[in-house]
Amino acid sequence: MKNIWLITGIAVVLGAVAGWFYWSQWGCDVGCAITSSPIRSSLYGGLMGGLLVNTFKKEKKTGQLNDNQNKN
């Protein structure tokens, strides 16, 4: 469980850095909701990094039998 929090935290930090880098290189000044501010761009990048990592998280299956065990 602790390992999941560590991996998610690293992904959020990397996403925030990527969001700031995107803002500094290609962000617009006026009219863009996310990339016009370095704070918003970093927060959005951190959110996307955390969500991306958690989509690949494996959950333990407990109490379920597979088909071979049900036939016996």
Q: What is the element layout, followed by pairings?
A:
Layout: H1 2-26, H2 38-54, H3 67-71
Helix pairs in contact: 1-2
Helix share, percent:
55-70%
N→C terminal distance? 34 Å
> Count of helical segments?
3
Radius of gyration: 19 Å
Main sheet overview: none
Q: What average pLDDT do the residues reach?
A: 86
- Tell me the β content: under 5%
The SSE order reads HHH
Shape: elongated
The poorly predicted ranges are: none
Q: How many β-strand stretches?
A: 0
Q: Structural class given helices, strands, pairing?
A: mainly alpha
In words, what does this structure look like?
- This protein is mainly α.
- It is elongated.
- The chain has helices spanning 2-26, 38-54, 67-71.
- α1 (2-26) packs antiparallel against α2.
- The protein has a domain at 28-53.
- The chain starts with a helix and ends with a helix.
- The model has no long low-confidence stretch (mean pLDDT 86).
- The protein contains 3 helices and no strands.
